[in-house]
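Lecture notes, unit on protein representations.

Consider one protein chain, 226 amino acids long.
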Amino acid sequence: EELLGVQAYILWEEAGCPDGADFGDKARELIRDKVERLGWTLEQVERDLKEPKQKEPAAKQQEKQQQQPPPQPPPQPPSPPPIPSAMTHDPLKWVNDTGSGQAALVAGGLDASIVSKIVDLENKSSWTLMHRFNSCAEAIQSGDDLRYVYVWLRFSALRQLTWQRHYNTQPRHLTGAQENLTSTLARQFARAKDPIEAQYVRMCLANVGKGGNGQRIRDDILHIMH
């Protein structure tokens, strides 16, 4: 019983001295294991419990630490494959970044003349959404690249471009410009020679609006301005 109490106390200390814990059964199993499996006498068990365990010398501990392999850094997640530069692609080629699930159309370079024309128009002193719709229709009719028209209309739909500047647009004129642009896009869709061109026409139409209500658009402009 004395050995049982000593063993239970040691187990209690090793467990962090929990309140109300009973280690009697576990202590009994440990003592029985030493006697039956290892063939110890009760005196040997008592000596093992009461004598303090001798620690290994510091040199021996250092030698063991040196023998252990250095910790390996955690594995780094694989980096997603880079999207090649648009300048290295053929015009109108789809690029799909499987790492992010995004897909985009990229084109080989920019046409500086078209970009300069759009920038010059947008910097006119008097400029409205009506003028932009008419200019987009003219660009399509003159054979300009639909990619530029789409980007132009997309920025307009996101209200990143001016809708009204130093010009009083009549609702009927705005409705006529919108109808003219949608009709031009519809004819371009009918003449499209490949699915990519047709897709750009659909994307342009999505940024023009349903049309037929120039008064509502003008009221929205006035609401933004005031």
